[in-house]
Amino acid sequence: MHAFTDAQLLEIWESGLVQHPIDRALTLLLGSDAQQTRAALAEWPVGRRDGQLLEAYRMNFGPRLEGLAACPGCGRRLEFALETASLAGELPALPSGNEFDFNLGDLSMRCRLPNSRDLAAAAMADDETGASLALLHSCVLALSRAGQPDTVEHLTDTEIAALEEQLAQRDPQADLTLALTCAECGQTWQESLDVVEFLWTQVAARARRLLLEVHSLASAYGWSESDILAMSPVRRQAYLEMLA
Ligand SMILES: [Zn+2]
Hints:
Blueprint: H1 6-16, H2 21-32, H3 38-42, H4 46-61, E1 64-70, E2 77-83, H5 84-87, E3 99-104, E4 107-112, H6 116-123, H7 128-139, E5 140-145, E6 148-149, H8 157-170, E7 177-181, E8 188-192, H9 195-221, H10 225-230, H11 233-243
Antiparallel strand pairs: 1-2, 3-4, 4-5, 5-6, 7-8
Helix pairs in contact: 1-2, 1-9, 2-4, 2-9, 4-9, 6-7, 9-11
The structure holds zinc ion.
Residues 71, 73-74, 76, 182, 184-185, 187 line the site of zinc ion.
C-alpha cells in the first residue's frame, strides 16, 4: 500500500464522483494498492475492505478521524475524533477462508462473509426486506433443516438475527460502531462509522484544493496541469505564496 500521488488522487476523485459508494470504495482501494485487481477486491469481505480503507485513510490523511454526529435525544451536534489505529483490528482471512458452517437448533448452514458484490446486489433491491433477503441469498450457500434442504425465505427473524451476529463476529470491522454520549443531555447511543464516506470526504476536499492550486498556477504561469501536479507540494506552495 502507498499514499496517493496528487495526480492519482485527482483520478480517483474524478472516477469516484459518479460512482455508487460500493464502487467508490473499490476505486479508493485500487488507488492505494496497485497489486490488486478490481475483481479481486470486490471479493474481499466487507470488514477486510474497511480495514484496508482505514489504513489508506491513515496513510493519506493522518491517524485521526474527525466527525460530527447528531444526538438522538436533544438533536445537538457532537464532534468526535478517534484514532484510526484503535479501529483497525486484525484483518480477516482472504476469500478462500471466508466460508464457515453455522448450526442453530435443527438448522445447518454453510455460509460466507458478505463482500462488495453482495452489497451491490442488495443495493439493487426495492426495500430493506428485499435487500436483507438478497444478502441472505448471497451469503447462505447451503441450508438444511432437520436434514432436509430448505431455503433462506423460511428463516425466522431469530435465526436471521443469530446469523447476522455470527457474521459480525467473524468480520468485526464490517460494522464499526462508536459508543457516544451527549454532553448536553446525557443520552448514550451507537453511531455506525462509514469508512468509505470518511475517506471520500477527505479525498474530495483535497481534490478541490488541488484543482484550485492548478488553476492559480496555470493562470499565472501557463504551466500544464500535469507539470503542476508533478511538482512537490513544497515547491508548488512556494510559487503560490509568490502569487499571493
Ligand atoms: Zn443530547
